[in-house]
Structure formats: C-alpha cells, structure tokens
Specification:
- By secondary structure, this protein is α+β, with helices and mostly antiparallel strands.
- The protein is built from three helices and three strands, in the order βααβαβ.
Length: 101
C-alpha cells in the first residue's frame, strides 16, 4: 500500500493596501496677486470662487494652507501645474506636497 502525503490546503488572502495620501499645500508669498491665486485654485483644483477665496485668505493669514488631499502622483502633478501657472506669469506662487499622517 502507498502512503499518500496530503498537505492541508491554505487559502491566501490578498490584502490590498490603500495608497498613501499626500496633501497639496499653498505657500503664501507677498508678490502673487490674490485674484491670480484664486484663479489658479479654481482652474487646477476645481474650487468655487468662495472656496478658492477662503483657501487663499487662510494661506495669507497663516503662511500656508492645505488645498486638497490626493494620492501622491495626483498631488504632485496638481502642485507642479499650479506652481508652473504662477511661474508662467512671473509670480513666485508655490504649491508643495507632503505625506498625510
């Protein structure tokens, strides 16, 4: 008689991890006109006039303001495009990203 070796079947559960989120941050400067900042926020981040104005005022008063939270690639792309829009007009407008905690 042949002894058959059987292994217990184990099920492997694949856990998909959510991607880490990154904050897009508007850094205040004293040279970029407020109206231009509002225009960039509306165009790049699809904000309403009121939302964009509130974000701009918060950055003006506190020095920085979190604009939105995205996955890393999206956050970096939006921050770069918004910063480039300011550079194209000759303004030192700056958007940065950092990981959300």
């Amino acid at each position: 008689m042949i002894d058959a070796v059987t292994k217990p079947k184990t099920k492997v559960k694949i856990k998909t991890e959510r991607p880490r989120l990154h904050k897009v941050i508007l850094v205040n400067d004293d040279f970029t006109p407020r109206e231009f900042v509002v225009t960039v926020l509306k165009a790049e981040f699809r904000m309403t006039e009121d939302q964009a104005h509130k974000v701009m005022i918060t950055a003006h008063r506190r020095g920085v303001c979190v604009v939105a939270v995205f996955t890393r690639d999206v956050a970096e792309t939006k921050a770069t495009r918004a910063t480039d829009a300011g550079r194209a007009k000759g303004y030192p407008l700056l958007f940065t990203t950092e990981p959300e905690e």
